[in-house]
Amino acid sequence: PNAPLVLGIETSCDETGVGIVRGRDLLANTVSSSMDEHVRFGGVIPEIASRAHLEAFVPTLEQALETAGVTLEELDAIAVTAGPGLAGALMVGVSAAKALALATGKPLYGINHLVAHVSVGLLHHDGAAVAGGLLDADGRAADGLGALLVSGGHTEILRVGDLAADVALLGATIDDAAGEAYDKVARLLGLSYPGGPAIDAAAQGGDPAAFRFPRGLSNAKYMGSAEEPGKHRYDFSFSGLKTAVARVVEAYEAEGEEIPVADIAASFQESVVDVITRKAVLAATENGLNTLLLGGGVAANSRLRELAEERCAEHGIRLVVPPLSLCTDNGAMVAALGARLVSGGIAPTGLEFAADPGLPV
Ligand code: KG4
Ligand code: ZN
């Protein structure tokens, strides 16, 4: 049988994404972001994101169809992110997908956003496999596969056995997402939004050891041991770190002294990246995961890439970093998982499902 032609729709946060794949081949990946509209607030405002999705959806869809050179009639299925994410934002994509499915009679699949992030490992992009044999054609991991997803909306460690049937959440943030922490701390330091790239750049000229900021959920009480894991062994917390940075900034302001932005940025970044990479590598070694796939917008971070490379190499873990356009939120990852479900003969979700902001993996 021919590889299925699938359209994927992603609207869980501030990116309106429409991707088209034929089996494992990426035909189009069009993304429109409302990031610019959130700049003056220093973070994603859900109401604004929802409205932006409404405005961007049809042009983004048309652009993707044009790029792929296909029509809606030719599709084998439509896939859409059902959750987790922002309620109103998800509803726009789910409603649009249902309308398309109803009008065309195509089967519709509701997709988990986190599993979709990992599904980019199925794709071939620019003639090469994104993750070189990481996942077989059926979406099963060849051997132990883990994923580290770090973005403005979520921060998780996953264990992936089979994209369609066996994905487990090993750890997640209990408060802010990593990217959200970058955005909030950038604001404290008077840097621009989004904060990640701004802090990454500012940190280049700073001393990462200038301040010793807290590593959330890293003490014995939360970590426990390999034999008796603590409740939060693989979990993250960034709100205490943000508060610690705020205290330092306030102290400089109170003294009327110039804030050492580069040193604070570098020290903050070191704290985030140290704890993320340490816990990800720990989760991988303790769960027999010998490959780690990186996803989410924070995957762009230079220090995260550097330390992840270093620590994965030390532990014999293969690190896979997809092209950035497939790390950030996009429709191609949703289409990739949709195509895998079609190929696997898995029944469509149908039209009777709702967007679920808290959808578990
Ligand atoms: O996955 P993504 O594009 O979208 C959502 O989360 O919706 O991730 C965006 C996040 C933002 O919080 C941004 O500050 C962060 O990724 N980010 C970075 C870097 N580039 C983007 N964080 C750290 N270092 C970077 N170089
Ligand atoms: Zn995401």
TrEMBL record:
<dbReference type="InterPro" id="IPR017861">
    <property type="entry name" value="KAE1/TsaD"/>
</dbReference>
<feature type="binding site">
    <location>
        <position position="196"/>
    </location>
    <ligand>
        <name>substrate</name>
    </ligand>
</feature>
<feature type="binding site">
    <location>
        <begin position="149"/>
        <end position="153"/>
    </location>
    <ligand>
        <name>substrate</name>
    </ligand>
</feature>
<feature type="binding site">
    <location>
        <position position="200"/>
    </location>
    <ligand>
        <name>substrate</name>
    </ligand>
</feature>
<feature type="binding site">
    <location>
        <position position="113"/>
    </location>
    <ligand>
        <name>Fe cation</name>
    </ligand>
</feature>
<feature type="domain" description="Gcp-like">
    <location>
        <begin position="26"/>
        <end position="335"/>
    </location>
</feature>
<dbReference type="GO" id="GO:0061711">
    <property type="term" value="F:tRNA N(6)-L-threonylcarbamoyladenine synthase activity"/>
</dbReference>
<protein>
    <recommendedName>
        <fullName>tRNA N6-adenosine threonylcarbamoyltransferase</fullName>
        <ecNumber>2.3.1.234</ecNumber>
    </recommendedName>
</protein>
<dbReference type="GO" id="GO:0002949">
    <property type="term" value="P:tRNA threonylcarbamoyladenosine modification"/>
</dbReference>
<keyword id="KW-0479">Metal-binding</keyword>
<keyword id="KW-0808">Transferase</keyword>
<dbReference type="InterPro" id="IPR043129">
    <property type="entry name" value="ATPase_NBD"/>
</dbReference>
<keyword id="KW-0012">Acyltransferase</keyword>
<feature type="binding site">
    <location>
        <position position="117"/>
    </location>
    <ligand>
        <name>Fe cation</name>
    </ligand>
</feature>
<dbReference type="InterPro" id="IPR022450">
    <property type="entry name" value="TsaD"/>
</dbReference>
<comment type="function">
    <text>Required for the formation of a threonylcarbamoyl group on adenosine at position 37 (t(6)A37) in tRNAs that read codons beginning with adenine. Is involved in the transfer of the threonylcarbamoyl moiety of threonylcarbamoyl-AMP (TC-AMP) to the N6 group of A37, together with TsaE and TsaB. TsaD likely plays a direct catalytic role in this reaction.</text>
</comment>
<dbReference type="InterPro" id="IPR000905">
    <property type="entry name" value="Gcp-like_dom"/>
</dbReference>
<dbReference type="GO" id="GO:0005737">
    <property type="term" value="C:cytoplasm"/>
</dbReference>
<keyword id="KW-0819">tRNA processing</keyword>
<dbReference type="Pfam" id="PF00814">
    <property type="entry name" value="TsaD"/>
</dbReference>
<dbReference type="GO" id="GO:0005506">
    <property type="term" value="F:iron ion binding"/>
</dbReference>
<comment type="similarity">
    <text>Belongs to the KAE1 / TsaD family.</text>
</comment>
<feature type="binding site">
    <location>
        <position position="301"/>
    </location>
    <ligand>
        <name>substrate</name>
    </ligand>
</feature>
<keyword id="KW-0963">Cytoplasm</keyword>
<feature type="binding site">
    <location>
        <position position="329"/>
    </location>
    <ligand>
        <name>Fe cation</name>
    </ligand>
</feature>
<feature type="binding site">
    <location>
        <position position="183"/>
    </location>
    <ligand>
        <name>substrate</name>
    </ligand>
</feature>
<keyword id="KW-0408">Iron</keyword>
